[in-house]
């Protein structure tokens, strides 16, 4: 039966959800507060990462955050502030950061990512979105110290146990993959299971495809109200006094999810984790995407430029660019790739995006108990780009009452973090 469905949020999760719901014959409207040309879906590193099996809420992360709290150029920065919601989220994050919970999340993260990788692959091979960069070269985790290398080798061993393709490289083997530039590393873990893309390219093609298929993309509209009748939402309204009625509603609103969920009485813990990116068109010597382990910085060869991305900054919902953090990314690149030149112009054009982070690092995907016709699809932290297509497919299956994977229970919006 065809339904009228409103999706709040036009990032990769929202557009992927629209894609799958439209394929099932539903009448879909996507409402976005911007032009659908900016935000976390456009400034990320472009990775599809089955290898990232360890959630952000790993043991010791809060300790690192406290250690780096007064260093605004650190890889994991938590701005000191007396915000009750941030304090509540931080406590839940701390309680989630246990070896047992991390271990339980490993197969969930892996299977979720593999589903998304399959969808990206289908999009590329079918050509329905047009041609786009889709490279399955894997991902290099570069290390400069034995301590960091040994820790990542433990993760690699666990990934291999999960059936993922991984290879350990020494210094010479790593350098051989990048013959056109010098590398200052001791070695690398090569996760051959991973892939990379140019996010803005895919987002533009996906949005155009959806409009051609009849999906209504409503831009520059901020949802400010939700009308309810009992346990159902009947309509949403916007700041410009537009009103949208529907049978089902999907909350794919990223870092704004907690605020919008509260309009329905649903309480979710979500914090904005700001990430930065620099696009450098002058670099064309990099062949493999890489994460610089000690610095937590990513480098990706994209179509027409090389992207440098990284940092996790918890400072609330804002798009303020901290120049010291941009500089830290550029400096990190120079330590691992001494010959690469990052221009001041590229640094001046740095942008940021707000990643929605839950206390346990796993997204919210499912129906909250208080509302019958609402599906939450948010909270993907640093894996929004990697998990977006799979999330869209899962939301479509939930709305159509189809069978969903067993790991859905771990993603329930009302799960406990304690």
Topology summary:
Layout: E1 4-8, H1 12-23, E2 27-31, H2 40-43, E3 47-48, H3 61-67, E4 76-78, H4 84-96, H5 99-126, E5 139-143, H6 146-161, E6 166-170, H7 171-177, E7 187-191, E8 195-196, H8 199-212, E9 216-218, E10 223-229, E11 232-238, E12 243-245, E13 248-251, H9 257-262, E14 271-280, E15 290-292, E16 297-302, E17 305-314, H10 323-336, H11 344-348, E18 351-357, E19 364-366, E20 374-378, H12 384-399
Parallel strand pairs: 1-2, 1-13, 2-9, 4-17, 5-15, 13-20
Antiparallel strand pairs: 3-8, 5-7, 6-7, 10-11, 11-12, 14-17, 14-18, 15-16, 16-17, 19-20
Main traits of this protein?
nine-stranded mixed beta sheet; 34% helix; 20 strands; 12 helices
Which descriptor suits the 3D outline?
Answer: globular
Please give the share of residues in helix. Answer: 25-40%
State the total count of DSSP E strands: 20
Number of domains: 1
What is the terminal separation in angstroms?
A: 40 Å
Question: What can be said about the biggest beta sheet?
Answer: 9 strands, mixed
For the residues shown, what is the average pLDDT? 95
CATH H-tier superfamily: FAD/NAD(P)-binding domain
Give the DSSP E fraction (strand runs of 2 or more residues). Answer: 15-25%
Using only CA atoms, what is the Rg? Answer: 21 Å
**Structural class category:** alpha/beta
Under CATH, the topology is which?
FAD/NAD(P)-binding domain
Descriptive overview:
The chain is built from 12 helices and 20 strands. The protein has a single domain, classed as FAD/NAD(P)-binding domain (3-Layer(bba) Sandwich). With 418 residues, it is of the alpha/beta class. Helix 1 runs parallel beside helix 8 and helix 1 runs parallel beside helix 12. It is globular, with a radius of gyration of 21 Å.
